[in-house]
Amino acid sequence: MPATLTIKCDTNKFRLNRRLLQRRTAWLMRQNGVATHEVSVLFVDDQEISWLNNHYRGKKGPTNVLSFPFADEADSCLSFLPVQELGDIIISVETAHKESLSLHVSLHDRLTWLITHGLLHLLGYDHERSEKEAEDMWALETSLINQLQSSRSNKMTHLAINVDHVATVRQARGINEPDPVAAAAICELAGAAGIVVHLREDRRHINDRDVRLLRETIKTKMNLEMGANKEIIEIALALKPDMVTLVPEKRQELTTEGGLDVAGQKKKLAKTISKMSKAGIPVSLFIDPEHKQVEAALEIGATYVELHTGRYCDATSEEKREEEYQLIASAAEEAYQMGLRVNAGHGLDYQTTSRIASLDTIEELSIGHAIISRAVFVGLDQAVREMLAIVRHASMIF
Q: Looking at the predicted structure, is the pLDDT value of residue 3 above 90?
């Protein structure tokens, strides 16, 4: 294999998506015309790279990346071998993680930049030789990263509003107000790109009348969340929403508590997806940000995945929140690279939305409770506009 990746750091603290980094390294090698060569990328901690930095460069402390071109140490007689070896790239994941926080990028995006930098060193570039070469190397790094990003989604993240909580308030009194249908219209006028409703088997909030009227009045896009049970499937097939999102559903839960176990019930979900596909209805699967769930979603024919952001939003420490963010970023990237379209949602509020909205692989965020709660104080129109401003700002600056 042209690129060999080895991980020698704490994988519990830093969860690395080997497949993603492998694909990005291969892409970089193709862009630089060395796809048939071999390169070794080693991910280590600060202690390991500090030793290498001191032993080979006479410098104390950790650095982010070191490169060791094969040609620097190779005997000339080895040039006749069929293997074209470029050399080794060693990256400190600890240092890269600190840099990703200060730069407001995902860990995997920072590691990609460092792989790019290390690869260019192996190809003969050296920013320490002269100011001119440093400028040239920086320009090439920037160009490669921009090419990689432009090959991905460059659309602004959309905001879809879940109006279930308006119906919950209505059901508390058992009357006709507030009306989620009227709320949906206000959300659209304020700039929402879609309306989300969850028609539960027990009809605890959204009911049949709501989904029928919403289908007739929504001007943007209707996303019907549902469990994969026979009655609701038949309603969806008759209603023909713009898309459906299959979610787990438990009678005792207050709200959806986690993602679907797609990997554990592929046969059942595949049948539902097949029925929807025949009716021309795209299907999204609400999943936890895990490789096996992303892979299973692709295998059974889903068009979208919606990544569960609940653990990220509920994190009680910055360390835990960062860990959950990296899982979401990694899963979103992996799903995108597989050809799945990616949404995200659950628990997002006015403090936690920005970083998720900054991920260019995510098309749409589904947010409900935070906006409806904010609307109690400032009105629904203003609450939607405030959240939309956060999403747009994050999409533009990161």
A: no
Q: Which residues contact 132 (CB under 8 A, 6 or more apart)?
A: none
Categorize the per-residue pLDDT at 2 as very low, low, confident or very high, splitting at 50, 70 and 90: confident
Q: Which residues of 22-42 are buried (b: 16+ CB within 10 A; e: fewer)?
A: bebbebbbeebebeebbbbbb
pLDDT of residue 106: 82
Q: What confidence score (pLDDT) does residue 74 get?
A: 44
The Cα 226–Cα 218 span in angstroms is 18
Q: Identify the band that residue 75 occupies on the pLDDT scale cut at 50, 70 and 90.
A: very low
- List strand residue ranges (DSSP E) for the chain, in order: 3-7, 38-44, 65-69, 85-92, 158-162, 194-198, 222-226, 243-246, 283-287, 304-308, 341-345, 364-367
Q: How many residues does the chain have?
A: 398
3-150 maps to which CATH number? 3.40.390.30
Of the residues 97, 117, 158, 198, which is catalytic? 198
Domain range list for the chain: 3-150, 158-397
CATH of 158-397, one of 3.20.20.70, 1.20.1260.10, 3.40.50.620, 3.40.50.300: 3.20.20.70
Report CA-CA distances (Å) from 15 to 93, 95, 311: 10, 14, 15
What is the phi/psi pair of residue 106, to 5°? -75, 160
Cα 339 from chain centre: 13
Active site residue 55: no
Q: Are 99 and 49 in contact (CB under 8 A)?
A: no
Catalytic position from the list 188, 225, 306, 324 = 225
Q: In the sheet that 85-92 helps form, which strands lie side by side, from edge to edge?
A: 3-7, 38-44, 85-92, 65-69
Rg (CA), the chain: 24
Q: Which residues contact 358 (CB under 8 A, 6 or more apart)?
A: 104, 394, 395, 397, 398
Query: Looking at 97, 158, 165, 346, which residue is catalytic?
Result: 346
Active site residue 346: yes
- Would residue 225 show up in a list of annotated catalytic residues for this protein? yes
C-beta of residue 229 within 8 angstroms of C-beta of residue 217: no
Average pLDDT on 196-209 reads 94
CB 39 within 8 A of CB 3: yes
Q: Is the pLDDT of residue 276 over 50?
A: yes
